[in-house]
Amino acid sequence: xxxxxxxxxxxxxxxxxxxxxxxxxxxxxxxxxxxxxxxxxxxxxxxxxxxxxxxxxxxxxxxxxxxxxxxxxxxxxxxxxxxxxxxxxxxxxxxxxxxxxxxxxxxxxxxxxxxxxxxxxxxxxxxxxxxxxxxxxxxxxxxxxxxxxxxxxxxxx
Length: 157
Description:
This protein is an alpha+beta fold. The protein has helices at 3-18, 29-53; strands spanning 72-82, 87-92, 95-103, 118-126, 131-134, 140-145. It has a domain at 72-145. The chain has a 6-stranded antiparallel β-sheet, with no helix packed on it. 13% of the residues are buried.
């Protein structure tokens, strides 16, 4: 044996005398598994109670089908059309529209028989991209797309 080997053996022996080599037994799986299962079941039951105690959503009203003069591909129910300065133009999203036949009342205000400042109705989109406004009083106005428009033509006061 060489001198290096002798010194290494002595060092390992000294280390072994100072190190506690008792083995720790792993915790039984039951001690962890049972509380985890109880916690999971408690969370599921609590979640079920919370969901069951929430009120049911209100029923969605059925909008009767209205025949349109042209094919449509969408609509906006409960559309508030600004009528305070007449029925002349409107907007949906970033698209501006102008009435095919503008309607004005006295002094350029809301037409007779229309609500002021708004008339509630439904806006239908046509295949050509135009819109048709209809309300419960039988009013109907066709709005044409103003291509390239970025603002209203007239500001209503």
